[in-house]
Structure prediction request, 473 residues.
Amino acid sequence: MMLSLDWSFFSWDLFSNYVWKGLKYSLLLTLIATVGGVFFGTLLALMRLSGKKWLDLPATIYVNGMRSIPLVMVILWFFLLMPMIIGKPIGAETSAIITFVAFEAAYFSEIMRAGIQSIPRGQVFAGQAMGMTYSQNMRLVVLPQAFRNMLPVLLTQTIILFQDTSLVYAIGAYDMLKGFDIAGKNFGRPVESYLAAAITYFVLCYALSWFVKRLHKKIAIIR
Amino acid sequence: MSWDWQVFCQDTITQEVGQSCFGKNGDITYLDWMLSAWGWTVSVSLLSLLIALILGAIIGTLRTLPDRPWIVRLGNAWVELFRNIPLLVQVFVWYHVIPAIFPALKRVDGFVLVVFAIGLFTSARIAEQVRSGIQALPRGQRYAGMAVGFTTFQTYRYVLLPMAFRIIIPPLTSETMNVFKNSSVAFAVSVAELTMFAMQAQEETARGVEVYLAVTALYVFSAFVVNRIMTFIEKRSRVPGLIAASGGGH
Prediction:
């Protein structure tokens, strides 16, 4: 026995009133978390590869700690602690942005670490032979190549990150899922609304992963 | 900031601190509640993992069948479908959409639906690992099976799968740990697991830091136990003669 779905309530107006605001936030969160996560993740990766124990140890503890806690718990932690640290409430949306940068840094750091380790040793020696300092060598020789080698993996992680933004539901931030959630409740059509959410996420993520797959092939030929 | 660990000895209704930290005569303390929530987390995780392993193994294997392009395409579609929708959205689909389409499922408990949601989500990821495990084997292994007169089924049963499963244990370890972490999305449909407990106990007692610390510790402890068990299995099932034989747990 199939229930007939009623899509008549689903209009452009509804999309622009409820979903669009959430989609914009989801994309913004993804963008900031990717840029911030790659930046701090690279710093963490450099700390872990520095060979100095006082840099390596805290970075390792941070990365492994973040990776062993569910993201929902991390979101709740920051939502609880941020107002205590700053001394005033900052709102779910801002809290989620800080959380995602901190959380994704741990994941991106593992990708960047693998990327740096994939560069042949000779490249580092060549840089040293030219008289480059450690930071010049990293900045001009190693990191650009590591970044390019890891680009498909970084983008795949970004797709996962975009999917994970839906978890801000736990603190009530207004992302795309929340938009569909509220629309479904207001129009008494939760079934169609959640289905529409699933389809929208699928289309966006499938398109992105198709793009990453093509990019991967392109980069594979260059190497 | 001061600590107040007594919050776990409080009764959940009267908020009074009891003598033993475990409730008596049917009353429950926050400690009782948290341990029961941990039980739900472990139950959701293990049952989801069971579904994911069975489905993932079948679909991953089907995706490597020679001369069966449509079965391979179907398997690929399965993986793409479950990989490109956020887990939380899938949980909502299982909870709100599927019972509406199939009224027979209306009376099924939310716990069961969440187990299926996480199980199928994870099955796509395990199918991907099983496929790459089989494809990583040298082509000669398949030919060897054919050469001794095995059918395709026998080649998989006696040659390819035993090898493939042993070499994919490290990624399976991380996937198992992911299932434990992913079980936290069950809060969204009111399964009384650890995250749900954390949110409600935080609200009721206003001792969020203590509650979250305890819950986080339980998640980390669970992940650690899973890691130890999988490392043990990995050691016992190691394929002699491979470079990976000296590798670590993950």
